[in-house]
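Internal ticket #5521
Category: modeling
Description: The requester needs a full-assembly model to guide mutagenesis choices. All entity lines are attached below as received. Residue total reported by intake: 437.
Assigned to: D.W.
Attached entities:
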Amino acid sequence: MTEKNSLTLIDNRSGRRIELPIMEGTQGPAAVDIGRFYRELGYFTYDPGFLSTASCHSELTFIDGEAGVLQYRGYPIEQLAERSSFLEVAYLMLYGELPTRPQLDEFTDIILHHSMFNEALKSFFRGFYHDAHPMAIMVGVVGSLSAFYHDSTDITNPRHREIAAHRLIAKMPSIAAASYKHSIGEPQVYPDNRLSYTGNLLNMMFSVPCEPYEIDPVAEKALDLIFILHVDHEQNASTSTVRLAGSSGANPFACIASGIAALWGPAHGGANEAVLRMLDEIGTVDNVPRFIARAKDRNDPFRLMGFGHRVYKNYDPRARIIRRMCHEVLDKLDDGQDPRFELALRLEEIALQDEYFIERKLYPNVDFYSGLIYKAIGIPVNMFTVMFAIARTVGWVAQWMEMIGEKNQRIGRPRQLYVGPRQRDYVPIEQREPAGD
Ligand code: CMC
């Protein structure tokens, strides 16, 4: 981070002038440091939705939304997707460099050996009603981990932070699979450390004690790829939530639970589930124009799920990769039979030629395709966002560790533009008039 230039602002109201330093990163737009703004001018800056606000500096992920570029620690997502593995990317995010073979072997071993969770946690699952959404279970169970792992909640101790990161990455698949098993009334399956990270997840979700289960290598590989694509995405809603919760000194398990809650919404991680539900609602290709018209109608709240992105104003690079994978997986696992894939392609084609979508630079995002792959693998729709949460845990913990490791780290505390009533006096209840009369 360097400061070379400054921005001069003149306040027309008071005639005062202020010089604000411009901070240059290594790539992407520079940022104006407005830390002194309120102190010197007495104004807050106003930026609802944070359209122009950098909330932190970070070495983890770089996105160029105009060019459709995504890099983790400088490595293009295309190269990682083609040549790396989820756990290798996790190592890269936590430690800053790609691991050597012995480093990767050791890291894999550590993660696999943290995959079981405390037996007492099992009773938490039983407390949920059978039709609880697995994301609701995830928020509760992950939040409760701090009650079990006191030896990794001292956030001032770097070793505690590291163990908490390992535990979270390792236990997420086990918790996710247990949530699923609970929802379908089957016994929970323990992790098997002979299996890969995604192989283990598939085994815990789909095997039953009474018969053998064979992991499909196509599904195992596809999940690993999807997980790489979802590892991190700089300061999105859930990551910002994790950072904000963490800035108060909350323990890492509580912070990640808050990230899971933020991810759940349909404008964020819940979009993959919403895409499938939307495709089911559209039903056939003939209905596509009607739904496109609804998406364009300002008076209709309907939006094309899986389209548009706050940062990408070009094709989402993850969508490009996953689109290819989608063809491959559906050919192998589904024989190209799922009519929703054809429907999705037709929807994409029509939307990409439509003036409304072109003007607003609305392209399919990663969630447009991920749900189709999950479906082909046999993952139920209400588990889609859980899959996202497993992968994004790596980004959340890496971002949390980066923030907590900073010198002079402070609590996040945005301000507001107050538009409520001015001061008024309390009126005794007998003397009050009904509001609006
Ligand atoms: N369908 C129809 N119109 C849309 C859509 C859409 N999916 N997305 C944006 N627009 C329109 C929007 O109505 C607005 O039009 P106008 O300028 O006429 O008012 C314009 O495009 C700009 O939209 P915005 O709401 O200001 O954009 P945003 O940056 O606040 O929202 C978004 C980004 C992702 C929340 C939004 O595009 C959306 O709701 N997409 C559908 C949900 C989705 O797929 N989410 C997954 C995002 S990727 C994975 C992740 O981050 O978790």
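Resolution: model delivered.
Comment from assignee: Residues 153 and 251 are 6 Å apart (CA to CA).
Ticket closed.
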